[in-house]
Every structure is written in C-alpha cells, then in structure tokens.
Amino acid sequence: MGARGAMLVVAAAAIVFLVVAPVAESAISCDVVYSNLNPCLNYVLFGGMPPPQCCQGARNLLAAARTPADRQSICRCLKNASQGATGPISDNAATLPMKCNMNIPYRISPSTDCNRFSLSLPASTDEPTPTS
C-alpha cells in the first residue's frame, strides 16, 4: 500500500472522532479531513508515536464535526479511505485515538455504518496529546 493509501487509512481512524462532536449545521469535505490528518501519515506507515501535530489535527477535526451532516460526511471520507487497508497500517490507524489519549469507543472499517453518526455522544475529557 502506498503513501496515499496509508493517508486514507489515517483518515479512517479519525472517524471515531465524529461521534463526540457538538451540534450545528454544515458538511465537511474530504479535503478538510485529509488535511487535518496529514501529520499522521508517518505514524500510520511506520508506527511508533504520532507527532503532536497529528493529535492536534485529530482535535481540529473533532471540533469541526458539529452536525450530523458533518459527522456523516467525515465518516464517508474515512470509510472510503479504509478500503483495502490491512496489517500494520490498519492497526496503526486503529490505535491513533488511543495514542492521542482520546477515549473513542469505535473502530473504523469498510463496513462502518456512517448513518449511526447522526447523534453526538459525550466528548472525552482527555486532552488529545500523544501518550507513550
């Protein structure tokens, strides 16, 4: 899997951030999703610890996902990005929320039902910064 595929997997991991966002009105583009998660690319490809910029990007994405339309749009971007991801790349993407100290109870996969992200859940009180 190339760097683009890995970036898409990073984006897929971030879908878990959608469920904890507050409510408002708009839809977020895939460009915004990928831009926020671009700093996570090396982590997804090679493992280790995500850089602070990666966790900040995830935090920014969480803050931007204010409406059901936002959350579902981000979900669709991330779901598409997760297509074909396997092995360490998929595992690294899946552990991103934990590594950024975010308590998110969902795992992203090609079978994720984006319609379930229509309601917001309580936000994590954890600061999303890298943990060891």
UniProtKB/TrEMBL annotation:
Residues 1-26 form the signal peptide. InterPro entries: Bifun_inhib/LTP/seed_sf, Bifunc_inhib/LTP/seed_store, Plant_nsLTP. SUPFAM superfamilies: Bifunctional inhibitor/lipid-transfer protein/seed storage 2S albumin. It holds the Pfam family Tryp_alpha_amyl. Plant non-specific lipid-transfer proteins transfer phospholipids as well as galactolipids across membranes. May play a role in wax or cutin deposition in the cell walls of expanding epidermal cells and certain secretory tissues. Belongs to the plant LTP family. This is Non-specific lipid-transfer protein. It comes from Spirodela intermedia.
